Amino acid sequence: MLADWAEQTERGSSVLISAMLWLVLGLGARASRWLVLPATLWFIATSGRARAASRDYLGRVFGRPARLRDVVRHFHCFGSAILDRVFLLTGRTGGFRITTEGLDVVADIVARHRGCVLLGAHLGSFEVLRSVTSQAPAPVWALMFRGNAGVLTQALERLNPSLRQSVIEIGEITGMLRVSECIARGEIVGILADRTPAVDEVGYRADNRRIAVPFLGSKALFPAGPFVLAALLGAPVVLFHGVRTGAQRYTVHFEPFADRVVLRRGARSEDLRAVIGRYAAALEHACRAHPFNWFNFFAFWEDGDNAELAPEGADPDGEDTDGATPDRAARDGAAPHSGNGALAGADAGLARCHGAAARANRSGGGAVSHGRG
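Below the sequence we write its predicted structure tokens.
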């Protein structure tokens, strides 16, 4: 189920990839763009599963069969975003034009001494968000699963080792405690919320909870973990994406999603479905506005009509039979990010830290409390 391109770009010789990065940095951003098209054509010719996934997605977003030139443009946008990462990571942003929309939404939350959760997707570039952190009203942290970091990811990270300081890794013993402390200090934590690890990826668990909701014409499975995490933290939630709009042109967009996510006792599954459905609807709107920026090159709708994965010990309605709903967050999903490690949902450390808060949440009314924070 992994995208062929993602698989291949994460493999290979460390020396070869380092040499390619040296060449790209030596040529500069403008000249290096000429390398993207031949690379795009090569991957289209050799990556059958990714090509089929692109056709399926583009056909849904356009409402007509995707043409070959659509697929080429989709792959080319992805390749260009990877190339741009090299220059964004090394701080060579002189030729870039990055605009922001809705940053006041986050500023308003932080001004009230509240932290917030940024929910994103594999839409555009996460690196471009890092590049605007200097404008952010508070420190920004990326919650990432890095267990599947490949050769390319490691090489890119070596371009700017200091970025690791702003990453909170899923799986660290103190990771979820750090997330809680960041929110308590009024800081910002970013998570990608549109996929779980595939069967053949590091981090996959058979009991990762997923919820099927409508997305681009059919049901698709989305991870429950990021939304359980947001409920446990009790912080305002803001949607974000950083889309590529042209050569070295990006727009980073923020919009309010919920003042807080509430999962009620006795209606947890219903509330999860409602909040994930709202997220999927917002993602669909963004995909239609920026169709070539969504980078999930695998059969995203393959299992959408099948039974949802529910953790063992859960009743048919998705409720914990033992009442230990916070602990379920440990198994509710992790979302890997091709070429950038992965942002993910909650784990047991966070669940233990927030048990009492989650019990209070579940006694509230309504899946989502709307507002600007």
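Residues 96-369 form one domain.
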